[in-house]
Design brief:
Elements lengths: L21 H7 L8 H4 L7 E6 L5 H12 L6 E7 L10 H7 E3 H4 L4 E6 L15 H14 E7 L1 H11 L4 E15 L14 E10 L2 H5 L4 E7 L3 E7 L4 E4 L9 H9 L27 H17 L22
Helix pairs in contact: 1-3
Length: 328
């Protein structure tokens, strides 16, 4: 990758992870390296700018999950958290939102190397019934001209496929809940560099997108799927967009918390599949997706963000990247 000299940029690019973000201390206890703003300030390099549109109700949990994976790269990343102006979160302290999040209107003046759009607990609603759907559409359209590569997760993936390509979602007879084996359909894709023939992915959703609808749309490529959980990863625009229907970012205990929160309160709560030792909720979860989750995010950052983004962020535009071969 051609880059300009980095000397003297330390005064311009100061932030990596905001000081005092709860995820920093949580991840330090997991022996995961995270550089805070103060230390990043001392390094005279051009970090990659990553924007996270966090639509999940438990913001701090999702922040920690994503930073955990983003930290597993030798590249310095500068993470910004975006919030919606048309929606006020109910499960995160307002002080946290004010300290660490910025409105789309403010961040829209910038360009970013990468962006992540999370899921949201609204999947059973029609998109047009979601109170913040107009703002979501505006953000999605903005990302196409202001971000090198965008990663859409779960509801975010379904919403992106619907908004850009008209792919509908369908209600499931029962919740897709557990850990399911996925098959990469083209291991030559850089996103799967180092992957095994099968990898596991957590899923927790009540709706699905279907292969037959996606195959009708030129430019959409299904690159991973499961005989049980269906389409899992769709790629578009040569990697400018990825749509992931599951949750590779989930921590080991996320499904456990969700199951124990809901069991006994609703009649439709089933044990998450392929998750607990001996399928016993009294035992620890069996973590079988973490290695591939780290690899997926590292490959995305390296091959679809770092290798493709211009050194001068103002040059990001709508044209498609040229897929190249990389040796590193």
């Amino acid at each position: 990758r051609d880059v300009a000299p980095s000397r003297g940029l330390g005064d311009v690019y100061k932030r990596q992870i905001p000081d005092k973000l709860p995820a920093i201390e949580l991840l330090k206890h997991e022996n995961i390296f995270v550089m805070d703003e103060s230390r990043a300030h001392k390094q005279e390099i051009r970090p990659l700018k990553i924007c996270v549109l966090n639509l999940m109700p438990l913001k701090i949990t999702t922040e920690t999950d994503l930073v955990r994976l983003l930290s597993n790269t030798p590249l310095q990343l500068e993470v910004y958290f975006m919030k919606l102006k048309s929606h006020t979160p109910k499960n995160t302290p307002i002080e946290h939102m004010m300290m660490f999040y910025k409105d789309f209107q403010e961040l829209s003046k910038q360009k970013f190397d990468g962006m992540i759009v999370t899921g949201a607990p609204i999947e059973t609603m029609a998109y047009e019934e979601v109170e913040y759907w107009p703002e979501i559409k505006e953000i999605f359209d903005w990302a196409r001209t202001h971000v090198t590569s965008t990663l859409y997760i779960c509801w975010g993936a379904q919403a992106g496929l619907y908004h850009f390509y008209g792919v509908p979602k369908y209600p499931l007879e029962k919740k897709m809940f557990g850990i399911f084996k996925q098959k990469p359909l083209d291991l030559s894709q850089p996103i799967f560099r180092g992957f095994d023939d099968i990898f596991n992915m957590p899923h927790s959703r009540h709706t699905e997108v279907r292969r037959e609808d996606i195959e009708k749309v030129p430019g959409l490529d299904i690159i991973a799927e499961s005989p049980e959980s269906g389409v899992s990863i769709v790629m578009a625009r040569n990697g400018r967009e990825f749509f992931v229907t599951g949750h590779l970012e989930y921590a080991p205990n996320t499904l456990d918390k969700e199951y124990k929160r809901d069991v006994g309160k609703r009649d439709d709560v089933e044990l998450p599949k392929n998750y607990y030792y001996h399928d016993d909720p009294n035992e620890e979860p069996l973590v079988t997706w973490r290695a591939h989750a780290n690899l997926f995010y590292s490959n995305w950052i390296n091959y679809y963000v770092y290798q493709e983004t211009p050194y001068n962020l103002s040059l990001i535009h709508i044209s498609e990247p040229t897929r190249r071969s990389y040796i590193s």
